[in-house]
Amino acid sequence: MAALYEGYTLCGLVPGQTLTNSGIQGIEAERDSDHVVVTDSTRSVTLYKVSDQKPLSSWTVKQGQTLTCPAVYNSQTEEYVVVSDNKVIRIWKDEDILLDKAFKATVSSDVWRVHCLPGGEPVVLFQRGAVRLLDSLLSAPQQPIEEVLAQEEAIRWSTNIVADSQQFVIFTTEQKGDSFLYLHRLNPNTLQRYRLEREEPGLSPLSFSASYRDKHICLLYLYPNGHVYQSVVSVRGLGGDEGAQALPLPRSLLLGLPVGEGLLEAASAQLLDEAHVAVVGVPHPSAGAGKDFLCIWNTNFQTLQAGKEMAGKIYGQLWTFSNKLFIPHGKTLSVIPYECPKSSLASALGKLNNGFINISVNVIIYGFFSLLTQRTNRKTQSAPSLTVDQVLDFTKTAPVEEVQREVEGLLSRADIQDLQPLVGQLASMLVSRSLADPAFYTPSTLAQLVHTQSLCHSVCPDLVLLALERRDFFLCQLCLQFFPDIPEAVTCACLKAFISMPDTEAEKLSLEPDSVSFMETLIARERAPVGLQNGFSSTSTDQDCSDALGGGGRVVIKTGEEDKEKSSTPPEPICPVGLHKAVLLNEVLLTAYSDTFLLPHLKDLSSQHVVLFLQYLQFLYLKYSQDASPQMHGLRSPSLTQIMDWVCMVLDAHFTVLVMTPEAKGLLVNLHSFVKSQVRLVSELGKIEGSLQELNKMKVKKDVGQYSIEIIELF
Amino acid sequence: MGEFKVHRVRFFDYMPSAIRAMAFNSHTERLALVRADGALEIFNFADHYFQEKVIPGQDGRAVEALCWVGQRLFSAGLNGEITEYDLENLRPRYTVEAYGGPIWTIGSNKQGTLLMVGCEDGTVKMFEILKERIQFQRNLERQKGRIVSLSWHPSGTLIAAGMMDMIRIFNAETGHATHRMLVERGVGASKSREVVVWSVAFLSDYTIISGDSAGKVQIWDGLTGTLVRTHLVTKWDVLCLSVSQDESSLIAGTSEGTVVQFQFISSTVDQQEEEWVRTRTFKNHSHDVRALAHTETAVVSGGMDTQLVVRPLLDKVEKNTQESAMRKIALPHRSLVCCAKKAGLLLFQFPDHLEVWRVGESDGHGKPGDSLPVKRKPEKLIQLKGKGGDHIYSSALSPCGEWLAYSTVSSVRLYRLQYNNISITKVSKLPKDLCLGHQLCFSSDSTKLFASSRHSSVIVVALNQLECKYLHTLKPKSGSRQPVHLLCTSEDGKWLATANTDCEIHVYDLHKRKLHCTVPIYSSCPTAIAIHPTTSHLVVVHADQQIFEYSLVQKEYTEWSRKLQKQGLHSLWLERDTPVTHVTFSLKNPAHIILHDMFMFCIIDQSLPLPESKTLLYNQMTLRSLPEQERIRHSHAFKICKNFKHVMCVSLLEDHSLVVAAEPVLHYLSEVSKRAQTTLSQFAGQYIHVMGL
User: Fold this and answer.
1) Of A248, A375, A480, B282, which is most buried by a Cβ count within 10 Å?
2) Which part of the chain is the DUF7165 domain (chain B) (predicted)?
3) pLDDT at residue A290 tops 80
4) Do residue B639 and residue A715 have CB atoms under 8 angstroms apart?
5) Alpha carbon distance A32, A50 (integer Å)
6) Residue A405 lies in a domain
C-alpha cells in the first residue's frame, strides 16, 4: 500500500502579484537525491539540501531582469544553466557568487525551456518548437532558429527523457483548442507529431507527466473534468514519416477522479511508478468538495492509496524526485516523502479469500499493460526474439501435434528471459485460433501454459470460456486454481457447467490428483466417534426434523427407520454428487470472489441445480462437523467458512425459488436446524462463560487472601 | 525434616517508589538512584549489584537530577535546592538554594571543578565546587523559558542546554549563547504544544544528541548548529539519554517503557564513514523509563514501574554466563520487617509510617498442603506515622514487643507499647548521644537498645520502666568511616555483631563492653548476619552468596564452614540473583539455619551432607516422590522452599511456626499500574504548578 509520510517545509513562498501563482517557476534535481535547485518566478535561483531543509546557496539576476525558465544542473560539467529575459542563456558554477559575472550568451530566438537529465546533455527548446543541444547552440549563439510550430500554436509543457541512450524532448502544444504531442529525438534528429483526442469541448489538459518504460514512452495527462488518460508511444516506431501529418494518439482512461463541484482549475497529476499516480488539487473522495488534497491513486485497481490535506492554497504544481513530492501550498513549499511498494491485489482491494494463490500482482499488471499496448499500438508491437517469433507464427498454422511439440520445446528452454509475456502471447494465440477453428484444440499445451503460473485471466480472457466450451474440465480446474483474477461471471459459468454435468461424464475426467485424493478421503472416511466441530451433532436435532427429512433431499438417509439407532448414531451423510464432480465444485468454492458481483450471476442457476449444490454444501458441512479437522492434509480443500459463505450466498440468491420448491423443503429444514444448533451452541457457550467467570472470581478471592496459616513439609 | 506451620502474611503492602533519576560513577562502579519519594539508593555494581546504602527521602522533596563529582554526590530538584549527600553518615550534608526557581537538571564539568544547574527562570547557574561546600559563581546568559537539560562538552568550553522548542549552546567562558537550534514540534494535535527537550548529550566530537517530548532522538552538529539526523523512536516522549564512556553507544528511554540503543558505526559494510544507527530496542518496563545509565557492559534503566533493570549488552559480555543474565531489582536488599518472636508481633516499615500486627492463630491440624482454619484473624494493632516529614531509615521492635524504636536522618524515637489496652507512649527523654541510628536492635531480653552511629560505632542504651539511660559506645579499631548496615545480638545477651559497607564485621563482648574480635574481611559485602543462640557461631552471608560460619569462642571459622568452602557451594546457589537478607535459627533443632532471599527460603541442616556439584539442588519435589527410606540417601543440607514469591521476611516464632511475609505478585503489579496513573496525574499537577498555571 502506498503511503504518504509526514512532510516538512523546505522554504517559504513569496507569492506573486496574482494569487494563482505560487512564486515558484520550477524545481530540478541537483547532484544527488538530496539536493534540489528551486527557481522562483522572478529573479532568483536557490540550491537546497532537502534533508536539512536548508538553502546552501542562492543566485539572483539584476533588478529589471527576470528568469524565464527554471535553472537546471548539468551534472557532467557541474554547472547550472538558466535563461533570463527569454534570450540570455547564463551558465555558472557552484563557486560563482555573482550571477552577473557568470557566462552569458544571447540567442536569436526566444527560449521556452532548458532541459537536462542527470547524465544527459542540456537541451534547449525554443518557443517556436525548435530543439538544439546547448553545446552546439553556444558554438554559434546567433545561428538562425527554425519555426516548427504553426502560427497560433504554443507550447504548454515540455520535458526530456533518455530512452535506451537516446535523448528525447517531449512537448505538448495547443492550437485552437486542439492539443498536440511532439516527440523530438536527438542524434539523429527526428520529430513526430501526434494529435491528442479531444475531450469535451473547451477542455484542454491541466497537467502532463511522462515516463519511459519497456521501450515505450508513457504520457499521463489530467483534464479539468477529472479524467486522467494515459497514452503510450513506442520509441521504436519513430522516424518513419517525419513530421508530415499529426497521427492520432490513442489514449486510455486510467482514472476518473472525483471533481466535486465545477471543473478543476489548479491540479496536477504525476506518475510515480507504473501503478501509482500522485494527484494534487483534486478533492478527496470521502472528504467533501475541498480541493486541497494530495492523493496517491493506484491506476491498476483505481483505488485511493493515500491522501493528505494540504493547508493553504494549492497552485496545481507538483514535482517528484527520489521518493519525495515537492508541493507548493499556501505560503510554504513542502516536501512529502512517499512510498509505493509493489502492491498485491489483495491489499488493493481489501478482501482476500483464503483460496487465493499468492502470485505476484505483476502478472496482473502485465496483463493490463500488455492489453493496453496491444490496443493502442498494434502497429508497433514487436516480439522479443526471433525464435519466439517463429514459434508464434508457427502456432498460427501448424497442426495440433506439431504445435504441442514446439511449445513444449520452447517452454523447456530455460534461457528464455521474459517467459511471462511470451506465455501470454502464446496462450492468446492458441485460444483465438481454437475459437476460430473448431477442429483445432491443444488441451495439453494450454494446461502446460497455465501450469507455468505466468498466466492470468486478464491476459487471456477467453481461455476459461474456451475450456468450458470444449468441456475440458481439467483445464477449467487448473485455471480456477492458478488464476487469481477470474471474474465472478466466469466463476458462475464454471459452477453452472460443473453442476449440470452428468456424473457419468465427470467420472471419465482425469483431474488434479491432490484435490481428488482429498475428496476420496472425505467420502471414504469412517465417521470419527468424537470431536464434533462447532457443536453440531445430528443426534441432537433429529427430534426437530425427523418428520421433514423424509420429504427432502438425498442427503439424510435412513430417515426415521429405527428410533433407537437414530438416537444412538446419527445417519452417515452420503455425497449427493460424484467424486469428480465434487472435486470440481470444491475448486469453485476455493476461488476468490466478491459477494456483490457474484450474487447476480448466481441467480442464473436453475432451481434444480441450486438444490443439488446446496445438498452438496450441506454434505460438506456435515462432514466437516463430524470430523474435527478434515483440512489437516495440506491438500486443496475448502474451509468451513468458505462453505458457509457459499451456503448463505446461494440461499440469498434463490430464496423465493427455494421456498416455493417442494424438494427443497427438507433441505431448508435441515439448514434451519444447523442454525438452530449453532444458536443453541452459542447460548451454551454463553452459560459456560458465565460459570467460568464465576470460577475465576472464586479463584481470585482465594488468591488475594491477605493471610492464611498453611502446613508445608520439607523433606 | 518435618512439617511447618506457616503464617503466610500478605498484608504487608509495601510498594517501592518510582525511580526518578540515576547517575553511574564508573570509577567506583557505584550507581546512585533516586526515587519519587526522594529516597537515595547506592548500588555497588562491582559487588553483585548490592544495594549498600539508602538515604531515606523527605515529604515534598522531589529530586529531578543526580550528579557524581568524583566521590561526591549532588542532587537538585523542583524545590530549587542543590543538595550534597554525606554518604558516610547517610544524610544530606548541606543544601544550597539556587534562587532560580525549580531546578530541572544538574551537571558538572569533566574536571570536577564546576557544577551547573538549569532553572525554571531560564538561567544556567554555575557553582564552584569547594572542598566542603559549593559556592555560586555566576549565571550564564539568561534565556526565555526553562532549562530542562544540560550537557557540558568534555573540553569544558561549550555547554548544550535543552529548553522548550529549542537547544541552546553556550560558550562556557563568556556565558553567552552562541547557537540556537530549533526543535520541531510533534505532529497533529501536539503541533500546538511546546516540545520539551528532556535530555541532551554533548559528545567530544561536538555532536549534540537530544531527546524530546515529540519522540525524537536528534543528532546535531554542535559547531554549526545544524541538524544532522532525526530518529523518530516513539509516539510519546523520549525522557532520558545516556552515552557510553567511549561514546560509541547511546541509549534513549521512552515513555512507552522501551530503551532504544544507537551505535556509532558505519551503516553498511563497505562504508567508511560512521554514523549513529539505531540498533536495538529493549522492552523491560511497563511504564515510563525515567532514568538511564550506560555502563561499560550494560544498559541500566529505571522508571515508573519501580524496578531497576540491568540489561547486559551481549556484545560486551560473555554469553550464557552469569554476567550476561538480565537483572531486575524490585525490592530493597534489606529487611523491612521485624518480628517479635516471643510476642508473635510483626513490625512493618514503610517510608513514612510503621505498622505493628499480631499474627493470627489456629488450633487445627492438617496435612501438608492444607490451609488451616483461622481461629483468630491477624490484626493491626498500631499504625505510627513518622514525624517531621523525614522518612524512616530503620526500625526495630523488641522481642517482648513492648518497645518500638525508629530512626530518621535527623533523630531516633523510642516508644513504649502496651497491648492489653492498646496504648503507645513516646519516651520523651532520650540520651543526647542517641541522635543517629542507621541500624537499631534490641537485646533479646529487651533491656538494651543498640543504635549504630557515625564511623561504625554502636551506642548502647539501657531501658527500664522508668528511664532510658546511655551506657556506653562501642567503637571498632579499624577506624572505618563507613556506616553499619547490619546489627545483631546473641540470644544470651553476650555478643553484638556489626557489619559495615567496608565489608568489616566486628563482634563486641557486651559483658566486657569491648571489641571481642573482627572477622577476617571477605571481598564481598555481608548481606545478612546472625549469631547462633547456643553455639555462639556467627553466620554471615555475602552479596556473592557465600556463607561463612565463624566461631566467636575460638575466633576462627568452624569446621562446617571450612568444609563448605573446601567443597564449594552449589553452582545454582551461586547463580541466584537476589541477596539473602535475613538469617535466623531454630531453637528446637540447633543444626538448622533458616535464611531467605526474594524468591525462596532455605533451611540449611548442618548435620546433612552438603550438595555435590552434580546433585540436584532444588530437590524437594524429588524427595516428596520418593518412599521414606530412600529419602535419606538423596537429601542434602540445603532444603529450599520456593512456594513463595517476593519474600520480605522469614522468621521463626517461639511456638516454632514460621512467619513468611510475601507479596502477591499480581497485587504488586496492578498496584504499579494504578500508581503509575495517579503519579502521572500528580506529575502533571506538579508540573502545572511549576509552570505557574
Assistant:
1) A480
2) 438-594
3) no
4) yes
5) 10
6) yes
Residue A226: partners with Cβ closer than 8 Å, 6 or more residues away: A255, A256, A257, A258, A259, A264, A282
Look-up: residue for cell 436453475?
A606
Boundaries of domain holding A657: 600-696
State the DSSP H helix or E strand holding residue B273, giving kind and residue range, or none if neither: none
**A116 backbone dihedrals φ, ψ, rounded to 5°:** -155, 125
Residues A494 and A617 in one domain: no
Say how many CB pairs under 8 Å bridge A and B: 83
Give the chain B residue whose CA is nearest to the CA of A706.
Answer: B10
Closest by Cα among B479, B593, B579 to B534: B593
Contact with chain A for residue B431, Cβ under 8 A? no
Length of chain B in terms of residues written: 693
Q: Is B372 on the interface with A (CB under 8 A)?
A: yes
Q: How far apart are CA B459 and CA B173, in angstroms?
A: 51
**Beta-carbon separation of B4 and A714 below 8 A:** yes
Determine the Cα–Cα distance for residues A674 and A668; give it in Å rounded to an integer. 10
What are the pLDDT digits (tens) for B23-77? 999 999 999 999 988 999 999 999 889 999 999 988 878 899 999 998 999 999 9
pLDDT tens-place string over residues B346-387: 899 998 899 999 888 887 777 777 778 888 888 888 899 988
Between residues 214 and 253 of chain B, which touch chain A (CB distance below 8 Å)? 226-227
Cα angle at A144 between A143 and A149, to 5 degrees? Answer: 135
Q: Which chain A residues are closer than 8 Å to B641 by Cβ? A: 712, 714
Residues 6+ apart with CB under 8 A from B650: B582, B584, B594, B595, B596, B601, B658, B659, B660, B661
Of the three residues A508, A523, A538, the one that is the final residue of a domain is A523
- Closest Cα in chain B to A712: B368
pLDDT in tens, B570-588: 888 888 889 999 999 988 8
**Of the partner residues B11, B370, B664, the one whose CB lies closest to the CB of residue A711:** B370
Please list every residue in chain A whose beta carbon sits closer than 8 Å to the beta carbon of residue B620. 714-715
**pLDDT tens readout for residues A523-535:** 776 444 444 444 4
| Cβ-defined contact of A715 to B623 (cutoff 8 Å) | yes
Q: Note the pTM of the prediction, 2 decimals.
A: 0.54
Range of the domain at B686: 666-693
Tell me the three cell numbers of residue A101.
559575472
CB contact, 8 Å: A714 with chain B?
yes
Report the residue from B5, B11, B367 with minimal CB separation from A707: B11
Interface test with A, best of B6, B12, B604 (most A CBs within 10 A): B6
B675 assigned to some structural domain: yes
Q: Is residue B189 part of a domain?
A: yes
In this structure, the strands spanning A247-249 and A190-196 are: parallel
- Do residues A515 and A608 both lie within one domain? no
**Cβ within 8 Å, pair A714-B641:** yes
Say yes or no: A609 and A506 in one domain.
no
pLDDT in tens, A659-706: 888 888 888 888 888 888 888 888 888 888 888 888 777 655 555 577
- CATH code for the domain of B39: 2.130.10.10
| From B11, B184, B226, residue closest to A54, measured CB to CB | B226
Q: In angstroms, what separates the C-alpha of A42 from chain B's closest C-alpha?
A: 29
Number of compact structural domains in chain B? 2
Q: Pick the range with the lowest mean pLDDT from A251-260, A367-376, B536-545, B595-604.
A: A367-376
Q: Does residue A398 share a domain with residue A502?
A: yes
Give domain status of residue B568, yes or no. no
C-alpha cell at B421: 489496652
Ranking A342-356, A401-415, A644-658, B169-183 by mean pLDDT, the lowest is A342-356
Q: Which residue of A has its CA nearest to B13?
A: A706
Domain boundary among A523, A538, A559: A523
Number of domains making up chain A: 2
